[in-house]
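Before a colleague's protein record goes any further, I have to sign it off. Would you go through it and say whether the fold makes sense for this chain? Take the sequence as given and treat only the tokens as open to question. The record follows directly below this note.
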Amino acid sequence: MKTKGFTLFEVLITCVIVGAVACIAIPQIMPYLSEFTLNKNTQTLEQSVKEARSTALKKSRLIYIDFSQAATNHDDSGGLIQIKQNDGTVISESYLDKNILFDSSSSTIANNKVTFDYMGQPVGDSNLPENFTESNNTITVKNNDSALSKSITISPITGATSIQ
């Protein structure tokens, strides 16, 4: 009577072949994984900016997105992005992945925040749209595990975002 199955030797040979292929493939994939993680987190950042703008329109009041806690890791997460009302009440928050952080040295926004007025326009100092210009409209995140970084620019007047 024959039984169907694999011998121990066949299983070991298969494991050795799979291990060898993995040892060759994994180092080739790692740079793409860091880039993918940064791209995903840049989209999270862009979504948070859009949510802040939308909330400002919906609530007809000043809403800002706060990056003051986004430059450091939080336990098993990365930077913390908070959307707040003008009185400081947190409306929503999101975490970036571990070691994906707000880069204050490459960002040009003032005071680590972007404020939107009741019409959804980004505003600068004194909460005036004309004070939000192309010289203070870039938000940059970086991957601390690699030298990669990505930026989002917010268009003055319209508040539209673009990833660079």
